[in-house]
Amino acid sequence: MPNEPTILTPDGKSLNSRLVDQTIRELWRRLRIAESAAGPSTNKPTDIASIRDALQASGSAPLNVTNLPGLPVPNPGTVTSFSAGGLSPLFTAIVATATSTPALSFAQINQPANVVFAGPASGAAAAPTFRNIVGADFPLLNSADHPYILLPIPATLNGLNFNQTMGAANEVQVFKFLMPLPLIITRITAYIGIASAGGLFGVGVYSSAGAKLIASGAQSTTSTGAIEATVSATIIGPGWYWLAVTMDNTTSAFRSANNDATADAVLNQSFAQKGTAANASVAGVLPATLGAITGSTAIATAYVKLQTGNI
Prior knowledge:
Elements: E1 7-8, H1 17-38, H2 46-56, E2 63-64, E3 91-96, E4 103-108, E5 116-118, E6 129-131, E7 148-151, E8 157-164, E9 172-179, E10 183-194, E11 200-207, E12 212-215, E13 219-220, E14 225-236, E15 239-247, E16 253-259, H3 261-267, E17 274-277, E18 293-295, E19 301-302, E20 304-307
């Protein structure tokens, strides 16, 4: 009896051993029946002779499953559709000849100017999207160094200290400044140059659009000197902001950098950068928004330190 052959599928993979064994046994059974019925004549059925020759030759070459009559041949099927899936917002995928030999190509999706591909601006982790940069995206200075910024930093100082009062109780005086580096602000310090028993003051920072970001809350004007208030840790990133100060009286005063009216006139040309806010404070508590800003050349900007303390 010839060696039992190795049977391969059309794609070159072996059939499982049980199927191979059953197939060969059935082929040999049919071969013996056919040869017995044919008698001594060499004129045997063509299909049987083909099976026998293929089996005898299998000692040196595997028998392909397509050579075996009666054995089911796997149908490779056809491709009916093909998709690369969703790659937005980075790419759009284009599929050519999807049902024969699929070919993929990719095109970048246009995005608005000045946006970055990043995770959420705040909160829990989430899939990245294209968005605007926020202050929290910038690396922070080491809080152990207690970094700070001392205001004001204008070109309108004449080198003299000045005690600046409010033009009216609960007036809010503002000065626009540039934050050069991101800081986590946890402390605000101002200096009371003239005390007033029972009086209250407040200091804070607003966005360039006039929304309150951090504030000292109501602080007492009873004593002179540097007064520090602790605030909730808030990241102030690089950009333009408003420094705002207020008092609920016209007696006490902030120690300030004396102003120069000529320089202030230049500073406020076309756009108010220093002056008073339309919205008033209440008992030393700054308003949620500033409202419209009216420029002034008669306001000395209070000395204020924004600092990163122990977090």
